[in-house]
Automatic annotation (TrEMBL), chain A:
InterPro entries: HprK-rel_A, P-loop_NTPase. It comes from Marisediminitalea aggregata. One of its GO terms (molecular function) is kinase activity. It comes from the Bacteria. This is HprK-related kinase A. Keywords: Kinase, Transferase.
From TrEMBL, chain B:
This is Uncharacterized protein. It comes from Marisediminitalea aggregata. It comes from the Bacteria.
From TrEMBL, chain C:
InterPro entries: NTP_transf_5 (IPR039498). GO terms for molecular function: transferase activity. This is Uncharacterized nucleotidyltransferase. Pfam families: NTP_transf_5. Keywords: Transferase. It comes from Marisediminitalea aggregata. It comes from the Bacteria.
Length: 284, 76, 363
């Protein structure tokens, strides 16, 4: 089985070659998307050398026939492909401001969840996606430089460690790739949040809020803190993938977006609470 | 050179202002504070002299900000 | 794997409005090949002014826009860095002269739309080199890590010091005192180039267009690597088209003849004619009655292939042979044979040692 193209919605990448297991995962995640006429990138994951094809096999990621990273164990091929696609976007797509954040949308309104270690963001993103929210992106918010709206991307959610087990428990029918173990982030699997039919209904959404979630199992009651706009701006621009290349355009749109949204830090133990909070406090 | 290239955006909740120097491609954040002795900045810290040099004393930027008590320069 | 035929690719570069006939898969291949050659933004700069861009497929417009945004950001950075370098060196009463990509970006004499320039090349006088290097080092420009042999190569054999990198911003500066290696015996009379210094409105110094053309020619035809050779050829064709006049050609000829680069100059004109076929070059070939003997036809064939981007989607048969020939020629131009043999032996030994036991410890 081979998959020749990866349609991410926003753009498409040709896929020249993948190891069999990674090709199967890619087919699972992207296989139902139609082909766009022209691809923007061309990528591949292939054995790093003839020798290492057989002995402790390692693979490397190629973008336009160049290798930007060190190789990884072949067992992590699919994860490497996804990280590689992130790299292609971050270093080669300057048409939008790309922020390191998850984007969840309901009723045409978007909430951003900046990527913070230990926040439980992936679990939260996945759970919201399985419970009525549209996952526009798991890790990369795509912001229109003129309107400040956020565009959807057809990408899976990257689950790590315990969140893999949780999602499987909550939603046994969820479409998950096989787990890659011993990655730099621990165990990693990718969840297909939506099918192409659902994704086709997503349109650019107005950003209404930013939430810095902090999962705290010991929290008997959730705790809410207001985050001021200066802190929000600082978090966004230091965690943007291409802010410095876009320069003034990214500054302008980020200032405009930050001025229009509310910011919260939420310490939570209950996902139900989070969903209610987002709906009640942020959606108008 | 520098003063002419700086854009300022006050933040709507009065938490501070964000500045962009298009000449140097640098972003600066200034937090407003009620403490008369210092203002904290995120990146990088300024003395009032540095602020004048950086943004151009002749532009009046610093004076305007100080006179409106929007910014209290950071004295080492 | 699908490929673009070489002649078709060259025809598109020579006359970009031919892109209107491209199929979807041709577009994909063209943009990836151009990306490798650092010419995506260049293509945008050719199509936008003639109103062709709006009729292109949306994905192509997006790619070209993205490339242009990156190029413009780079150019802004280059302008800033040149001002900083100039300002630092002026404290020691040294006026650097900016070369090639940096010069094209900072001077209105050159067309730099879409030009990507990753490193900055600058020229200072040989007796100013040490002071310049020290001044830069004191201001967070660090010499890149090279071993003792390479350091000696740069300083003794070559016409430059090891590259310097700005510690905070990562910009790389190559500081030269000549335009070609003194050890080669073919380094030009650098005072002649200094005499053409132009100070631009922004206070930064560059070579006059005729001298810039000759420098670019030396860089292309006297070096062993021509990785961005197509871009260099486009730079030179642009200088010619912009400044085509009797006085321009007289200045070029004077520099060429005085510095014994007549062969390279004729080869260059033939190469540019074979790539782009412009009247500006044809007229000079005619006027100077340039003909190609067997040796010249061989090198013309080699360079025409070697300057092309090295990309699996570009069908360029025997490019490996051509690049190998250019490689040998470049090395033999740079050093007398005895020095070349000694240099090659050392480089081979170091490469073999690295392959066997990894990077050597710093001494």
């Amino acid at each position: 089985m081979s998959i020749n193209y990866l349609n991410l919605g926003l753009l498409q990448s040709n896929c020249l070659t993948l190891p069999t297991a990674a090709a199967q995962s890619a087919q699972l995640i992207y296989g139902d998307a139609p082909r766009q006429d022209i691809s923007s990138f061309c990528v591949a994951v292939k054995p790093a050398s003839l020798l290492r094809r057989f002995i402790k096999p390692i693979v490397e990621f190629e973008s336009n026939f160049r290798i930007p990273f060190k190789p990884l164990p072949a067992s992590q091929s699919y994860a490497l492909l996804e990280w590689g696609l992130n790299w292609c976007l971050a270093t080669g797509h300057f048409n939008h401001l790309l922020l390191h954040a998850a984007v969840l949308v309901k009723e045409g309104q978007a909430v951003l969840f900046p990527a913070m270690p230990g926040s439980g963001k992936s679990t939260l993103t996945a759970w919201l996606g399985l419970n009525g929210w549209s996952v526009y992106s798991d890790e990369m918010a795509v912001i229109d430089l003129h309107t400040g709206t956020v565009q959807p991307m057809y990408r899976p959610i990257c689950l790590k460690n315990l969140s893999i087990d949780l999602i499987q428990k909550w939603s046994p029918d969820a479409i998950l790739t096989p787990v890659c173990h011993d990655t730099a982030k621990g165990s990693v699997a990718h969840l297909k949040a939506h099918n192409w039919q659902e994704f086709s209904t997503f349109s650019p959404a107005r950003i209404v809020g930013v939430v810095f979630p902090k999962y705290d199992a010991s929290a008997t009651e959730p705790q809410l803190y207001s985050v001021d706009k200066l802190q929000t701006f600082e978090n966004f621009y230091t965690n943007a993938f291409n802010y410095h290349v876009l320069g003034q355009a990214s500054f302008d749109i980020l200032a405009r977006v930050v001025n229009q949204i509310q910011g919260f830090e939420v310490h939570y133990a209950s996902l139900d609470f989070m969903s209610d909070f987002l709906t009640d406090e942020l959606l108008s | 050179m520098f003063a002419a290239s700086v854009e300022m955006r006050p933040l709507a909740d009065n938490s501070g202002i964000v500045l962009f120097d298009s000449c140097l491609n640098q972003t600066h954040l200034l937090r407003f504070t009620s403490d008369a002795n210092h203002a904290s900045t995120f990146s990088p810290p300024f003395t009032s002299d540095e602020f004048s040099v950086f943004f151009g004393a002749e532009s009046g930027t610093l004076d305007v900000l100080v006179s409106r008590k929007l910014v209290i320069p950071f004295e080492h | 794997m699908k490929q673009l035929e070489l002649e078709r690719f060259i025809a598109i570069i020579a006359a970009p409005k031919q892109v209107q006939k491209l199929s979807a898969s041709d577009w994909e291949m063209l943009l990836w090949v151009l990306d490798t050659a650092r010419l995506e933004a260049w293509l945008n700069a050719q199509l936008e002014p003639i109103g062709l861009k709006d009729s292109l497929p949306a994905t192509v417009q997006t790619r070209l826009d993205s490339a242009m945004i990156y190029a413009e950001r780079q150019q802004k950075q280059v302008r800033y860095e040149c001002e900083i370098i100039s300002s630092l060196l002026s404290e020691k009463r040294i006026t650097p002269l900016f070369l090639k990509g940096a010069a094209y970006v900072i001077s209105a004499e050159f067309n730099s739309a879409g030009r990507i320039c990753s490193d900055i090349d600058a020229l200072v006088k040989q007796d100013e080199l040490d002071v310049a290097e020290r001044q830069l080092k004191m201001n967070m420009w660090l010499s890149q890590d090279v071993d003792d042999y390479d350091d000696k190569y740069y300083r003794e054999y070559a016409h430059e010091i090891p590259p310097m990198m700005q510690a905070e911003r990562g910009t790389v500066l190559d500081l030269h005192h000549n335009l070609f290696l003194p050890v080669s015996g073919r380094a030009p009379k650098i005072e002649q180039f200094w005499a053409t210094t132009t100070t631009n409105d922004n206070g930064l110094s560059t070579l006059k267009p005729a001298a810039a053309l000759v420098h670019s020619m030396i860089h292309l035809l006297m070096n062993e690597e021509v990785t961005y050779g197509l871009r260099d050829c486009l730079d030179m064709q642009s200088i010619i088209d912009t400044h085509n006049s009797d006085s321009f050609w007289l200045e070029v000829s004077t520099l060429v003849v005085d510095n014994d680069f007549t062969y390279e100059y004729q080869l260059l004109l033939l190469l540019l004619d074979s790539l782009f076929g412009r009247e500006t070059v044809k007229q000079q070939i005619l006027a100077q009655q340039i003909t190609a003997d067997t040796k010249t036809r061989f090198w013309l064939w080699c360079y025409r292939k070697a300057v092309m981007p090295d990309h699996p989607h570009l069908c360029n048969r025997y490019a490996g042979v051509a690049r190998a020939a250019v490689y040998c020629r470049g090395h033999s131009q740079k050093m007398p044979l005895a020095t070349l043999l000694k240099h090659s032996t050392v480089k081979l030994y170091k490469a073999a040692r690295k392959a066997l036991v990894g990077e050597a410890d710093k001494e």
